[in-house]
Amino acid sequence: MREISLREAINEALAEEMERDTRVFMMGEDIATGGAYAGVTAGLSEKIGTDRIINTPISESCFTGAAVGAALRGYRPIIEYMLGDFVMVAADQVINQAAKARYMSGGRVCVPLTILCPTGGYLSQAAQHSQSLEVFYIHTPGIKVVYPSGAYSAKGLLKSSIRDDNPVAFLEPKVLWDEVEEVPEEEYIIPLGKANIVCGGSDLTIVAYGYQVKQAKKALESQTDYSIELIDLQTLDPLDLGTILKSVEKTGRLLLVQEDYRVCSLSEHIAYEVNASIDLRSKIEIISSKFAPVPFSPELEKDLLPQVEDIVSGIQKVMGDSGQKIVG
Amino acid sequence: MREISLREAINEALAEEMERDTRVFMMGEDIATGGAYAGVTAGLSEKIGTDRIINTPISESCFTGAAVGAALRGYRPIIEYMLGDFVMVAADQVINQAAKARYMSGGRVCVPLTILCPTGGYLSQAAQHSQSLEVFYIHTPGIKVVYPSGAYSAKGLLKSSIRDDNPVAFLEPKVLWDEVEEVPEEEYIIPLGKANIVCGGSDLTIVAYGYQVKQAKKALESQTDYSIELIDLQTLDPLDLGTILKSVEKTGRLLLVQEDYRVCSLSEHIAYEVNASIDLRSKIEIISSKFAPVPFSPELEKDLLPQVEDIVSGIQKVMGDSGQKIVG
Amino acid sequence: MEVITKKDIEALLRGGSRSLTISINTVITSIAMDLINKNGIILDYGDAKPENFRENNKRFKSEKNDLPPDLILSMYYSMLKIRLFEEHAKFSKENQIIPGDFVHLYLGEEAIAVGTCQALNKNDYITSTHRGHGHLIAKGADIKKMFAELLGKETGYCGGKGGSMHITDIDIGILGANGIVGAGLPIACGSALASKFDNDRSVTVSFFGDGATNQGTFGESLNFAKIFSLPVIFICENNSYAISTPISYGCSSPELSKRGQGYDIESVSINGDDVFEVYAAVNHYIDKIRKNPGPIFIEARTHRHVGHWVGDPQNYRSRKEMEDLPVHDPLKIFLDKIEDRDDIEDSRLQEIEKKVASEIKEAVIFADKSPYPPAQQSDKDYLKE
Amino acid sequence: MEVITKKDIEALLRGGSRSLTISINTVITSIAMDLINKNGIILDYGDAKPENFRENNKRFKSEKNDLPPDLILSMYYSMLKIRLFEEHAKFSKENQIIPGDFVHLYLGEEAIAVGTCQALNKNDYITSTHRGHGHLIAKGADIKKMFAELLGKETGYCGGKGGSMHITDIDIGILGANGIVGAGLPIACGSALASKFDNDRSVTVSFFGDGATNQGTFGESLNFAKIFSLPVIFICENNSYAISTPISYGCSSPELSKRGQGYDIESVSINGDDVFEVYAAVNHYIDKIRKNPGPIFIEARTHRHVGHWVGDPQNYRSRKEMEDLPVHDPLKIFLDKIEDRDDIEDSRLQEIEKKVASEIKEAVIFADKSPYPPAQQSDKDYLKE
Ligand SMILES: Cc1ncc(C[n+]2csc(CCOP(=O)(O)OP(=O)(O)O)c2C)c(N)n1
Ligand SMILES: Cc1ncc(C[n+]2csc(CCOP(=O)(O)OP(=O)(O)O)c2C)c(N)n1
Ligand SMILES: [Mg+2]
Ligand SMILES: [Mg+2]
User: Fold this and answer.
1) Where would you tag: which of B12, B67, B154, C159 has the fewest CB atoms within 10 A of its CB?
2) Distance A84 CA to ligand 4 centre (A)
3) What spatial distance separates the first Cα and last Cα of chain D, rounded to whole Å?
4) Measured from the CA of D181, which atom of ligand 2 is nearest?
5) Hey, are the CB atoms on A135 and B138 less than 8 Å from each other?
6) Could you say which DSSP state residue D240 is in?
7) Are strands A285-289 and A254-261 parallel, antiparallel or unpaired?
8) Which residue in the set B69, B73, B106 is minimally distant from D158, CB to CB?
9) Which is nearest to B240 in space by CA: B132, B118, B146?
10) Which atom of ligand 2 is nearest to the CA of D208?
11) What does DSSP say about strands B24-29 and B53-56: parallel, antiparallel, or unpaired?
12) Is A129 an annotated catalytic residue?
């Protein structure tokens, strides 16, 4: 099968959805003029036309609100923050407008809006350009949260996000933009709210999302001691708790891996849910970022953010007291 | 001892700290002209003077940023959002500027800034005026989070917040503004990062903060079956985990109560920490808000937000399978 | 900026004076205002009276008007409906029949919403504010559902979930009231963009207050609308106050239309208390931008006849200012202006008065009789399935 | 607004033309620009050339200058230091010696920072931007610590935690570079408020780009500074681009000083490529606001001689535009202007050149030799104990 990068996969999904539905359009900084940092919009101004690929001024509040307004009018806007961190200058329009409009109207309106948020660290971009902001969205009722782990899931999930009638925050792990994966030419869709079992196993369940799925895979490759099931969440909200619980019921052990800080995070949420309904064979472990803003210097950043080695130790730790090694 | 309301207690703390230190000043909408909704600033423009009680235009981003600028210059600003929900129009200045300035500078600068955030529901103010936003702050490194449960703790905690050299989000449970408590005339301070054991007990630990402490107290009054220890967190970040763990080690049971949603919340965080280090006698329970924006209509809001009865059932549930009633 | 405190008034009184000269950007603390009112001190703005700083645009003024009687009567109907609705809302809030703290009344500002919405079609759009009842009624909202929503009833516009500040009815072009100051402007831009896509000549009006012009979204939206030539009219309802903060203190210049000009947008200041002037201006510009899309900024000067919210003691306004308010009553101005119109018989006005009264009564009874929503509805409706 | 796409160019070529008339608010997609450059198409702005829309303020212009030689040499020193620092930063980034994606160079804009900071005292303050190196150097930052920070070294200004966009040095008045467009303006207002409290006649300068004038904080800050008469100078570095978006497309009017006027702020547009003009203007206004606090808005027109960030292919600029850039080089303009000054000997210029070269070399070596911070430092320093 052909291989394309995460960036190209997003580009294809955008193009295909805009071709499929003329009510889909896009706003963002420099997306029509070649200066867009993400580059996921390359060529769209030519392919789709500049009436629907709208280059905006640096006015995130305004173009977010404009997307809400157009969505209320039946359009299906996609907006891009050049970096996900910049949502903070538009936070009111996301949290108090887009996410609440439907509820406040008693279900009379809907806001089909997709927000592209280049997310995360590992790129020496320092504190204002490296944040993991999934909790900001997950903790807000009224907005779904999607976080693909590579080109394949990105394409299928983005198409579902654009077709969804609700606001969706689509978090792109920018460290993976150039990474290629096999992606079929034919159209496919990955429904929101469904996790993906990357590989099956019986000793331990690892739940991860975004770039951490890739890191977890590497960790798995480096060990053959245990039979490990790896789950890629894909959608963070609504969460596919069913798939997680089913897996942990089987394995009895859970390791959660995320780039985000641990305090008040999705992994702690999953831990709570699992603890509430399953008696485990060992304590749940969470691999996450240390609690401080993301530093610039590579060695500092490496120390702050989860690494493959951390996952490997996490596996050891969960298996440690209770696990039996596979005898090969 | 004399009794004063939460509103008066905050007013006293503000006045005393401004009298104590001329570098403390305050900015907010209508705080010098009698139109301030919170009313915690009543009379300050006369008492402290209008050069330090600054009435601002409706420009939350600007006055938050101005507070950061003045703090970098050695002042100790206090700002008030008329309602805590409005932080969303100033989110960048809080999350990307105030909270990160110190770290990004390698510890060269500090931002002594107190943010007053009237918080929470129970008042039929609907989705944009009733939010619990503690996770927004807790999940961000570089800003402390304080949430008093009444007049007494508010006064002592606010004084510590103002004297702290870091940004502090001070969340006021506005449903309690008019509620009186005994508050000494003499100066006192409650240090940040210390929880308060409201009453001791041996069967069950309840951890709550803000208005939920009052509700938990009512729940305790309505039962005499169990010996329950109630902990008022007071500061949410940094969290006084030591006090919680010590209590739960003794009781072996934990009920967490918060107004906030459960997903990715402080209670889930505490649950994770406790589960990680203590083997409990029964599963942890969390009483929290249902997951939807806060509705306007009183009956709806009552259904969404935690009530005393919910806490009572929570107690039953945790004690249910494992607890032995006090035989009286 | 300058702030007058108790000390200043005491000094004045000691000096035996009963007149205080203040400058354009002065604010007065509530304690000082109390002393001013108690001692009958006259505030003298001298040449700095805000009005003097405002260029009076004569263009849309007219002593007489030649609008057709039906249109005039329709204006009367709408203004009166708002007036009575708000009086009932006030009463209901004061008597705790409406839950919550926040009911912002449109009393005294009726001419802006009505003059504007009379110039709009059903498939034109508006964004509204915290002070939204007037806009909604003028745009044709059902006052039964409105009043029911104010009471938190199941039959309300939002099934009780929204309340006074969140009423929405897209079918008649109401994109929503809003509890966040300044949040409606970007949303209006998006609606105007949709109109460009739809290419149906519809326009969007964004209402907001003088205080909202200091919110970041204001500048962003004016620029955005200009560069994309969006068919949107920004109508600033300048009632001189953002809660207790006078515009002369909070805004860099009391001439708000300057701000529009700063963004290269055609801008005009009008008398928002005169429904005919509002109608003339909005009608003119809507005509213009239906043909030739692009933003317009209108500053409509008006007066808030009551507190910011029901319950506001207004201890920042001088007694004199309050006493002068009736002069600016848009209904009075309206009636004065149609007095010599022979083609509008008193009987027709009385008919309207009766009609409005009975509609209001019906709405209040409807709301009162309606059930509250079932409690378990509380966490429904936040996502579309 | 109008967008030129490949189709438009192809049509033009089919028609045999090699000249394209475009209007003021046109943008060109990168594919279209590629065709334009490949086919040598001339872009013809006609009367709509952005420059023609700008009122040229003659007030601070001078063909000759009578500044003292030491000041002139000091300007040369600073401008050259920035130039060489940036050349080294460019090289280091292009060769992956600097980590990360974001190095925004000040090449070609040196005259603004230098002309401004020469008029400031040590205890005056600045807020800077993502494109901050020039501001920091002009305000007296230590280039050893700067370069070390760019490399992420322990000896850097932020101990490696901040990098290029987050350098701060309060001791010499640098309140911080900033990675968020428009975030510096409110912070500058707060600093100016502190100066009013301190009553020490210090002033604050806020640098920001043309693109930042579309961010909400811009309008909020101008209003805020005006109503509180804050001693702050807003200096808009108008290099005509926000990344690839031309100001003529992104801003409602290319006359940015209009926006300042909209907020009733004394506003002026100057040639930001001429250090003498910048100095004259800033010096004049600083004098003024030290005595009489209040905000000033200066639009300094300049040219970005390189990409938005190192690595930017600039496929949105025409070849012609790029070729014309050297004319606007502030160092060239400076040298031309001092050519007939007999009191400035070539030897002194050469001395400065040597001095700067050796300082830069020293800084680069210092940075290179410095250790990286210990990894466990990563979660230190975010709270003050
Ligand atoms: C972002 C934000 N800040 C503050 C408030 C609180 N608030 C509600 S109405 C109001 C005053 C608005 O004044 P103006 O825009 O002039 O409208 P008016 O009330 O006079 O109609 C304020 C400060 C809010 N709702 N939103
Ligand atoms: C709030 C925000 N939005 C977007 C960006 C991404 N970004 C960085 S620099 C820039 C362009 C800034 O243009 P301008 O203000 O003219 O400054 P210049 O780069 O030309 O010096 C953009 C969009 C950002 N850093 N912050
Ligand atoms: Mg107003
Ligand atoms: Mg620029």
Assistant:
1) B12
2) 21
3) 53
4) 26
5) no
6) S
7) parallel
8) B106
9) B146
10) 15
11) parallel
12) yes
